[in-house]
Amino acid sequence: MLEAVDVSLRFGGVRALTDVSFAVRRGEVFSIIGPNGAGKTSMVNCISGRYRPTEGAIRYRGQDVTRLRPNRRAAIGIGRTFQNLALFGHMTVLDNIMVGRHHLMKRGFLPGMLYWFGGAQREEIEHRRAVEAIIDFLEIQQVRKTIAGTLPYGLRKRVELARAMALQPQLILLDEPMAGMNLEEKEDMARYILDLNEEWGMTVLMIEHDMGVVMDISHRVMVLDFGRKIAEGTPEAVLADPQVRRAYLGEADETIPEAVPA
Predict the structure, then answer these.
(1) 28 and which of 115, 147, 188, 219 could share a cystine (Cβ 3.0–4.6 Å)?
(2) Any idea which fold 1-77+169-262 has?
(3) How far apart are CA 253 and CA 239, in angstroms?
């Protein structure tokens, strides 16, 4: 589904990523973890198109997308959420989610004329139906007409996920989807992510600091440290890796606490 090949990213003399390579398989939950400043968000920004790698390539479904703009990547099936919420705070929840349908709507002068004469109402109904299905899935019916900026943080995180889902992506990039949430909210979000993967058929690439969640729901995990990949594999294998223990704990003989089953 996705392949990063020797991706490096520099900002002046600062190296955010150095020769990072990995592949995400279709239908899996793939997590990127690492200490603060390890380059996790930089990697996701390279995949989504916010950053262009200094070196290396990003391939999506066999196509080189390294130079594609973010809107073109969205159009071919890559959606994302942001670590810092990027909602339109003055708009309702419903309108924020509808923004995610924008690239699926007809556009241009001539198509627009034909559109108004030949089925505007039908298309509007189809988009509304798709959005309502997402609202029901994420259990945010009660806030659908609420101004997004007035919602509690946990609900705003859910609305951001809803907008990314509205793109109908085949690959969804989740940048710390559970940051700032309480335990109950994290459990709900973990369930939504699993259902996205298993029921909605989306491949998930996730950055997350909650090690318990990562180990519970991920098929495979990659670890970054100072912009370099130091480990990749199943959650169990990654936890047992001495380099990972050093990166997180500073000592090779300590262990990361085991994840508590949900």
Answers:
(1) 219
(2) Rossmann fold (3.40.50)
(3) 12
